[in-house]
Amino acid sequence: MSQELTKKRIINFSIDQICESGQCFRMNRLDNGFTEVIANDRYLLVSQDGDEVTFYCDNSEYEEIWKRYFDIDNGTDYTKIIESIDTDDLYLKNAAVYGDGIRILNQNLFEMIISFIISQRNNIKRIKGCISKLCEKYGQKKEYISPDGNVVIYYDFPTPDVLAKAEIEDLKKLGVGYRDVYIKKAAEDIVAGVFDLDAIKSMDYDTAKKELLKIYGVGNKVADCICLFALHHIDAFPMDTHMISIVDNEYNGSFPFEKYDGYAGVLQQYMFFYDLKK
DNA sequence: GCCCAGGTGGGAG
DNA sequence: CTCCCACATGGG
Q1: What is the distance in angstroms measured between the alpha-carbon CA of A173 and the sugar C1' of B13?
Q2: Torsion angle, alpha carbons of A237, A242, A248, A249, to 10
Q3: A121 touches strand C (CB under 7 A)
Q4: Chain B nucleotides covered by protein, CB below 7 Å
Q5: Cβ neighbours, 10 Å, residue A209
Q6: pLDDT for position A278
Q7: Residues A76-97 pLDDT 10s
């Protein structure tokens, strides 16, 4: 264990809950108790004991990369958000307790566009499988030396350029089904400059969502997922099959957004997770 | 065989 | 604007 590591005490943080929360598809719990995170063209191991979280990287990498990725000291006050829940709303209170430790990640924009295009009418296990195969076929191969000295092979998420040149037949072999054309067209249009990802990053929620909706294969729900998980617009509230039934069954068809102005997306994630796991 | 999975595009009305 | 429907794939 000669490798550097960074230990932090962090409240409202659970690497297991985040890993299972359905917002990231390249994070995995390993048999040895560590969680691997493949993101930002890097490989990270994380372990946790209570509030003490260990990141297997030096402090400068933690400060520059992972602190923001995990939404740590980034302005989102999870304690305050949970405390703001209407005391009469037992469902939401229970969901927040159940989802304790989930954070809204700051993930790569292109990766989220492609990942959530793949997610439509699909289940999380298959989504992860498709993305893993996509990265293996089109992503750059990298090596990571683990703390015990083993060499871990991993693959970066593919660039727009590479996916724009992909053959439809090859994409289909990954099991993405009819979404093959969506992936290729989205990548092509980004490469061609039809969509400017850097510009989208600086837009407010409504403007960014409107722009994302122009991408072929991106509809209302996927656009909201991208806004929430890549652009950190935590007022975005993705309405998938789970949320439709929750809002239907628990809120008579309309969620009280006015009580949670500006951050309903965090609560959405608690409810989604609660429904997903029960 | 059926239904479902973090839905969307396209067409009709 | 709101309905319809087809769409690939694998697991229960």
Answers
A1: 38
A2: -130
A3: yes
A4: 4-9
A5: 20
A6: 87
A7: 999 999 999 999 999 999 999 9
Is A18 in contact with A72 (CB distance < 8 Å)? no
Report the C-alpha dihedral over residues A73, A32, A21, A260, rounded to 10 degrees: -30
Considering only CA atoms, which residue is closest to the C1' of nucleotide B7? A120
A1 pLDDT exceeds 90? no
Q: What's the confidence (pLDDT) of residue A157?
A: 98
Distance A224 CA to C8 C1' (A): 24
Per-residue pLDDT tens digits for A5-52? 999 999 999 999 999 999 999 999 999 999 999 999 999 999 999 999
| pTM of the predicted model as reported, rounded to 2 decimal places | 0.98
Instruction: Tell me the C-alpha distance between A276 and A246, whole Å.
Output: 11
- If you search the block for the tokens 């089904």, which residue do you land on? A177
Are the C-beta atoms of A46 and A103 separated by less than 8 Å? no
Rg of chain A in Å (alpha carbons) = 19
